[in-house]
């Protein structure tokens, strides 16, 4: 119920005029930056009472906007980070100067690190392996492939990327 005794209408962004929407977001930003309601009212040229309404409605709108579909958001975030990784790698290929190439590769690595952290935080990735552990079994019956596989295992152990079987 509102002040007039009528049931309160649910807040909907479509029911708020564009100028008021802009003022609500500005008021929210100013409030977050530490300004008082009086200072915000003076800066935006409206009454303190209106700022109180704007801040209350802004909080309600934030609550509505925060009710996003988590699965859709996670998918969007992963696609975004993957796109940024591809773009950074592409830029590294196109750059002529070595410093620019290195910077783009570093940026791709940073995005990859963010992607891994995001996936770990959301539970999509439990653990990122620090080392690759290969078994000593050899799936190849062909003698040539068998020997190549064994040589690869030996080189991996020498580099320290494959654990010795105990």
What does this structure look like?
This protein is mostly helical and 166 residues long. It has 3 domains: 13-65, Arc Repressor Mutant, subunit A (Orthogonal Bundle); 70-121; 129-166, no CATH class. 64% of the residues lie in helices and 0% in strands. The chain has helices at 18-32, 37-44, 48-65, 70-94, 98-121, 143-159. Helix 1 crosses helix 2 (37-44) and helix 4 (70-94) runs antiparallel to helix 5. It is elongated. The model has no long low-confidence stretch (mean pLDDT 80).
Features:
single chain, 166 residues, mainly alpha, Arc Repressor Mutant, subunit A, 3 domains, 6 helices, 0% strand, elongated
Helix-strand string: HHHHHH
CATH level 3 topology of the largest domain:
Arc Repressor Mutant, subunit A
Q: What is the total domain count?
A: 3
Report the portion of residues in β strands.
under 5%
Note the quaternary state here. single chain
- Overall pLDDT: 80
Query: Helical content, roughly?
Result: 55-70%
Largest sheet: none
Poorly predicted segments: none
Number of beta strands: 0
Name of the top-level CATH class of the largest domain = Mainly Alpha
Number of helices: 6
The general outline is elongated
- Level-2 CATH architecture of the largest domain: Orthogonal Bundle
Radius of gyration: 28 Å
Note the gap between the termini. 72 Å
By secondary-structure content and strand pairing, the structural class works out as mainly alpha
Which SSEs are present, and which pair or pack?
Elements (H helix, E strand, L loop, with lengths): L17 H15 L4 H8 L3 H18 L4 H25 L3 H24 L21 H17 L7
């Amino acid at each position: 119920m509102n002040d007039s005794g009528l049931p309160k209408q649910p807040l909907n962004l479509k029911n708020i005029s564009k100028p008021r929407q802009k003022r609500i977001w500005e008021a929210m930003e100013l409030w977050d930056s530490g300004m008082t309601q009086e200072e915000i009212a003076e800066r935006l040229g409206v009454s303190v009472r209106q700022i109180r309404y704007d801040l209350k409605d802004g909080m309600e709108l934030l609550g509505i906007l925060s009710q996003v579909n988590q699965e859709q958001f996670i998918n969007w975030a992963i696609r975004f980070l993957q796109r940024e990784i591809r773009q950074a790698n592409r830029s590294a290929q196109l750059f002529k100067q070595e410093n620019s190439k290195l910077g783009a590769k570093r940026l791709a690595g940073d995005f990859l690190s963010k992607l891994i952290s995001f996936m770990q935080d959301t539970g999509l990735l439990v653990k990122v392996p620090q080392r690759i552990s290969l078994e000593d079994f050899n799936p190849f019956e062909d003698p040539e492939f068998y020997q190549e596989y064994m040589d690869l295992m030996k080189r991996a152990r020498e580099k320290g990327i494959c654990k010795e079987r105990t």
